[in-house]
């Protein structure tokens, strides 16, 4: 098996994004026969890899990440004294009051379908190669390329299915002259399932690809997507597939699709070493400072900290200032009294097990290492004043006072910790720059650390397979089995001998604890909305200032007005 390292090229990606692929009734891409432009091996490789470039960007582009996270109980984009008010755009995400004119409703569709179109285009090219030897490509390589493109396209379809449910199947982009009507959820489910099952035999294992294969789809990657599909089948098509889900998870853990092992450090899946063969990352997008690094961009984690935290506190100066777009939702009111609702309160949920290693304040320790996963409290730093080293504290952009970041949302301004303020209002439209603990999932090592911004984005981790299997066992009434699978991952989060591990009989596990544990392990990883829906609380639950929805129609997003205007065959999702 030849090894091709997947680099994500920012220049080519930028060029791609200037076009649109939402008009599926038009010829977005040319009709040139593959034989006329695939004249050598390099042409085939470039054609094969092109959709992967868009795929990496798509994890956060067009506000996909914002829409996925801000509508849940873990992350919010607050109106910070006018910053991020944005006409109530992010507030509508939080309160589930979005409309068909909100940008993300069309943007996410464009995001997913541009990937589907690109993958289909490249797949058609691959299928048009009748004699691969003339292009210095082996039959095995061509089989691999086609299987990976089927898998990549299925990944896009699964995400679009989860977002919108009533979507279109597109399998021809070179000769089609018009779009298609939407298919039923059952048809979409069966199509994705068939695509993944058919692709697995033609896919390589990670071991065959070697370390450079971090961005390539493998047997385990496709199997993991099947597990995601089956885990949520009850929501998607009204029929549970937990037995099928459990079987495929056991096969992945058992090595049927390649050898993987859990990382022994909580931060390893997000560190620069996560591209190696002994990492638990089953599928990831490779990042680097010199090329692309979308999870480190403003659409995701770089704008998950206060303005000067990166350059002053972390010592990371390559990107200049951050911008506090994302923070955890609060677990306490302005008087520091814990809220009584069961959902949300993500930082409090971590504090339930106080010896959790992730609870330490984020700090770079040198030699490409760090501790802690959150930014809170004062953020001190040292600098030179007239040649003398001075200690200062990070400030905001709305006043000269030092910030004290807290698990609360309100107008604290320059109030010192422990001092009660008169203004008791706490909601999405009433926050300052002290409000909300920040999540630092991927490290921001200081400039010029050679390993800064080189972590791959971990789209699928072996931990997800363990948690999925645990949920299947829990739903089958086997709490002891569920606790055992969860603890295999959780033990790295606590010191040796910690009492925070679940009891062997699983007696601590409830629906709420299972959902809380999903939230702790996968916080900020773009899956919370799906988990809340699967556990039946996305619409009925309350958290912080978010009240229950009037009905269940917000479980799926509306199809944006721009998309509806393109294809007259489309029907808007119910309730919009």
UniProtKB/TrEMBL annotation:
PROSITE patterns the record matches: PROKAR_LIPOPROTEIN (PS51257)
Principal localisation: membrane
Domain of life (superkingdom): Bacteria
Annotated localization: Cell outer membrane
Pfam families assigned: SusD-like_3, SusD_RagB
Signal sequence, start to end: none
Keyword Transmembrane helix listed: no
InterPro entries the record matches: SusD-like_N, SusD_RagB_dom, TPR-like_helical_dom_sf
Tagged with keyword Aminoacyl-tRNA synthetase: no
RagB/SusD domain mapped to chain residues: 430-576
Annotated SUPFAM superfamilies: TPR-like
Residue ranges annotated for the SusD-like N-terminal domain, each copy included: 65-231
GO cellular component: cell outer membrane
Keywords, in A-Z order: Cell outer membrane, Membrane, Signal
Family: Belongs to the SusD family.
Protein name: RagB/SusD family nutrient uptake outer membrane protein
Protein species of origin: Mucilaginibacter ginsenosidivorax
Record lineage: Bacteria, Pseudomonadati, Bacteroidota, Sphingobacteriia, Sphingobacteriales
